[in-house]
User: What shape does this take?
Amino acid sequence: NLKLLKQSLFENSGNGFGIDLGLMLEPFRGLRIGAMLEDATGTQIRWNTPARPTFTRDPRFRFGASYHLSFPVIGHATVGADMETDGKNLEASDASGSNVLFRYGAEYWLFNVVALRVGAEGGELAAGAGLRLRLGEATLFADYAFNAHELGDSQRISVSGLF
Assistant: This one.
C-alpha cells in the first residue's frame, strides 16, 4: 500500500509519503491470519512551519487472526485479536514497559440486521451496536460506538448508505 499523509495542527500542516506491506491468508474456511509492516520505510512528514521540522513515523509490525462462525438462520459472529509492536523492539518487556499493544474483539450479527460489538485495546473497553436496513436495492446502515481511553470516553454515531 502506498499512502500520502496530510496532517494539520492549528495553522500548520505537514505532508508525507509512506509504504505499508501486508499479507492475509485463509488457511481454512472461517480462519483468517494477517501480518502487516506499517510505515515500512519510516514515513517522514515534513511540516510547513518556519523551522520546517521533519517527523518520522517508525515502522510498526502487526499480526492478527480472526475466526468467523455461522449460526444457521439466526446470525453469525466474528472473533479476532491482534498485537502491534514498534519496529525497534519485537519482544515485549515487562508489563509496565511493554512495546506491545494487544487488541481483541467480537461482533455478532442477529438475522443480518442488528450487530453487537465488544472489544478492548490495551485494556481499554470499546463497545457498539449497528443496524442494517435493506430498502429494495438500497441498504441503510446506522452504527454507534463507545470507546474508553485515558483522554476521556468518546462516542461516535454514523449513518451511511449503499445504493
Notes: The two ends are 27 Å apart (CA to CA).
